[in-house]
Amino acid sequence: MLNKSINMFKKRENVGEIEEGNLLSPKFDNDGLIPVVTTCANTKEILMHGYMNVEALKLTIETKEAYYWSRSRKKIWHKGKTSGFVQKVKEIRIDDDQDSVWLSVDIGDGASCHVGYRSCFYRSIPFGDSSASTVLKFEEKEKVFDPKKVYGDAPNPTKL
Amino acid sequence: MLNKSINMFKKRENVGEIEEGNLLSPKFDNDGLIPVVTTCANTKEILMHGYMNVEALKLTIETKEAYYWSRSRKKIWHKGKTSGFVQKVKEIRIDDDQDSVWLSVDIGDGASCHVGYRSCFYRSIPFGDSSASTVLKFEEKEKVFDPKKVYGDAPNPTKL
Questions:
Q1: Which end of chain A is more exposed for a tag (fewer CB within 10 A), N or C?
Q2: What is the value of ipTM here, to two decimals?
Q3: How far apart are the C-alpha atoms of B10 and A115, rounded to whole Å?
Q4: In chain A, what residues touch B89 (CB-CB under 8 Å)?
């Protein structure tokens, strides 16, 4: 599926070129990963924060569907392959120093979070009140799907 | 400034509690950092992707202004202290496994990017066309400020 003959990425040689140029020179960290923020193209909400390796970024660019690197399963992850909630890419952006990616996607009425909510960011942190303890508020009230029905007995990717 | 007497963070002991509970148990990586995505509360665009350490997250929660950990300068970074574009926090969210933070902020007509653009994500990556080389498209046409006037000869935080 991946067309390995295309050399999509330019070597990082010059800060000016990386910031002001028009060539793609993504920076992968010591683990070979680049952080990715995925938003809903319709609602603009953040759906998830994940990571890509070289192959996942190339696959996403080529196939118009979001691929990530699963740090818990240690493999390429075609998002939605199990749940059915594939992410159709609407826009891909890269930041100034090219060390993070913004993916805007269409998931219809689907969900993005393995816990069952639409967005992984379903809880807010109270702030500005130094007196109270920090009790999270659920901003999403209902799950979109039942994770037990979708994932069965698959291991939970959340790690302590 | 930081009220160290408040124990804001609960120890991570139980996956169910982390995902479905209402206590804040952020996961900091091996470098003591948690990734943070910052969006504009008005336009909903992503302004930047950064990192916080424990102190930066506590300061942000307490002061209602965004603090980060600068990986290039290796110190706490009160965003906007030099440029004047302080980020006033409107909402803070945490994701399912509590290893990333979403900050929604007000920056008025200001900017967030040290290159001078409003958002750090001022370029898009073409996708779905496997034939062409990858030439980035500038989605922002004009800088909000001149970085030379604002930062002078301060070292550029972008690293190869």
A1: N
A2: 0.93
A3: 20
A4: 127-128
